[in-house]
Design goal:
Elements (H helix, E strand, L loop, with lengths): L3 H10 L5 E2 L2 H6 L6 H8 L9 E3 L4 H14 L3 E4 L16 E4 L6 E5 L4 E5 L4 H9 L3 E2 L12 H7 L6 H4 L2 H4 E7 L5 E4 L24 E8 L1 E2 L3 E9 L2 H13 L6 E5 L1 H7 L9 E9 L1 H17 L3 E2 L4 H8 L6 H5 L3 E11 L3 H13 L4 E8 L2 E2 L2 E11 L6 H18 L19 H19 L15
Parallel strand pairs: 2-4, 3-4
Antiparallel strand pairs: 1-2, 5-6, 6-10, 7-11, 8-9, 8-10, 12-14, 12-15, 13-14, 13-17, 16-19, 17-19, 18-19
Length: 469
């Protein structure tokens, strides 16, 4: 429980209504969008909730909250807009939950230097719309853009759907304003590039609230594209599609969107454009008109050389229109289905092995009705795979066991093939005990050392990201 003394201290630092212990507020901030929390809630299980929800209006108030917590030895859980899907939010009654949604200002848009600064709680779509009014774009389009925050993008090292051309969030971050666990404020980043020692921004990016509270973010911008076009190709084999993508990016063509669907996903998502027993490679090309035209010609030749046949270019607008439409967890649970997606990545020489072994291992589970995958983020060195699995259980008590086993098998098969177990959704509590696959035991020790140095009391989002020693 949070004591009355602490509540009074918080009330003295915040605006009226900034300290909330109502049942509605505590219930709404119990967890993020992780399906297991929704499963437990749907089954009527008790889910812990924070001791208090506080809503700062500015960075100075965030500092005041952190100082009160540090003096009292009280855990803090930063909360953006709650779109995370890996269990990064799991407070209990001993915690102060810092709801950053009230810090939602667009601070500045600089059209000359092509940067824009935002409060950390600024809604992603509202941030994009603000710069779009000036003919600019952030270029970061996660599926969650309308329900995620700018600070959340940074804290989870997010990737957007246009990443192949525009990069991931770490490629867009110019500066980060962060309140450290002792209440001090640092701004990391002040120039287009620096060689001023290690890049401390990366201590915050992907830290998921365990190293401090992000209060503001400055992102680099782009001018909106002059031209946009779509292409689509049928892939006779997964390998042929991968090879076409490899040739395209390694020849320095970077369509912002490159998505390859296996046969099952092509049939499910692109029925009007699907070819029997073939997958689909979809691309969006945008930028200066002359560059788009040159890219279209080059991509056509490279795809043909890899054995791909041209499909309908209307598949692209079809995807754009429907790309963020997904059923809710409750919709699926009420059909006795437990469903999730798992995003991993691997080098070009390992990615087929990841796909084959994951599918074989997961399909061996009796309740599994579907495993499929698509790639959605492409690099010169390799690409990601985004697996979807569906399990059917008449008894909902069995769902969580199957869910965790699918995740375990997927991450182990990925690691066995030399892949990375977390591409863009972060770690949370879902992946933290598998993090050794990516970091190794010495890497985990280093991560714990950094955490101990920055947050010696262990108050920042405890239990998240870092495996127990």
């Amino acid at each position: 429980m949070i004591s009355d003394t602490i509540l009074r201290k918080l009330e003295a630092e915040l605006d009226a209504g900034g300290v909330d212990t109502s049942d509605a507020a505590l219930d709404e901030r119990r967890h993020d969008y992780w399906v297991l929390k929704h499963l437990r809630n749907w089954r009527g299980e008790k889910i812990e909730r924070p001791g208090v929800v506080v809503r700062p209006k500015n960075t100075a108030q965030v500092q005041a909250i952190v100082r009160v917590a540090a003096e009292g030895g009280i855990p803090l859980v930063p909360f953006g807009l709650g779109s995370g899907v890996c269990g990064g939010i799991e407070p209990d009654e001993s915690c102060i939950l810092v709801d950053l949604s009230t810090m939602n200002r667009v601070r500045e848009i600089d059209e000359t230097n092509l940067v824009a600064s935002f409060d950390a709680g600024c809604n992603g779509l509202e941030a994009e719309e603000a710069v779009a009014e000036r003919g600019l774009t952030i270029g970061h389009w996660p599926q969650s853009i309308a329900v995620s925050s700018v600070g959340g993008w940074v804290s989870t090292r997010a990737a957007g759907q246009f990443s192949t051309g525009y990069g991931n969030i770490e490629d867009m971050v110019y500066a980060i304003e962060v309140v450290l666990p002792n209440g001090e404020l640092v701004t990391l980043g002040k120039a287009p590039r620096a060689a001023a020692g290690p890049d401390l921004r990366h201590l915050v990016m992907g830290a998921e609230g365990t190293m401090g509270i992000v209060s503001g973010v400055t992102l680099s911008l782009r001018r909106q594209a002059e031209k946009r076009a779509f292409t689509a190709f049928h892939t006779p084999t997964l390998a042929a599609g991968f090879e076409a993508q490899r040739q395209i990016v390694q020849n320095e063509w970077l369509p912002p969107v490159m998505r390859q669907y296996d046969v099952r996903e092509s049939q499910r998502n692109f029925q009007p454009f699907h070819a029997d027993d073939q997958g689909l490679l979809l691309m969006m090309h945008e930028g200066p008109a002359s560059r788009v035209d040159a890219e279209l010609e080059a991509v056509e030749g490279l795809a043909s050389k890899a054995g791909l046949a041209r499909g309908s270019d209307e598949a692209g607008p079809h995807w754009m229109e429907r790309r963020n439409h997904v059923p809710t967890w409750t919709d699926l649970l009420e059909q006795n289905l437990i469903v999730d997606t798992i995003e991993v990545s691997a080098p070009w020489t390992r990615i087929e092995g990841v796909y084959d072994d994951v599918c074989e291992s997961v399909l061996a589970l009796d309740p599994i009705r579907l495993v499929s995958a698509h790639s959605s983020h492409v690099y010169r060195t390799g690409l990601n795979l985004y697996f979807t699995f569906v399990a059917l259980h008449e008894d909902s008590a069995e769902m969580e066991g199957t869910y965790r086993e699918v995740w375990r098998r997927t991450l182990e098969a990925t690691a066995k093939n030399g892949g990375g177990i977390a591409h863009h959704h972060g770690v949370g509590r879902l992946r933290k005990n598998e993090l050794h696959h990516d970091l190794g035991e010495n890497g985990l020790a280093l991560l714990r050392t950094l955490k101990g140095a920055i947050d010696p009391q262990g108050l920042m989002n405890p239990g998240n990201l870092i495996p127990d020693a």
